[in-house]
Design brief:
By secondary structure, the chain is an alpha+beta fold. It contains one helix and two strands. It has one domain. The chain starts with 9 loop residues before the first helix and ends with a strand.
Length: 42
């Protein structure tokens, strides 16, 4: 399963959100390896 599922660190999640044009990413949920983020589109 690890070959098909890439698990990113919170820092990598934030970097990808910023690269996609989002600002102020804030985590609002974490359960095991699933994280939810709130971010604003620039």
């Amino acid at each position: 399963m690890l070959q098909q599922l890439s698990i990113l660190s919170p820092e990598q999640d934030v970097q990808q959100l910023r690269e996609a044009g989002f600002s102020q990413p804030q985590p609002f949920y974490q359960g095991l390896v699933v994280r939810g983020w709130l971010a604003f589109a620039d």
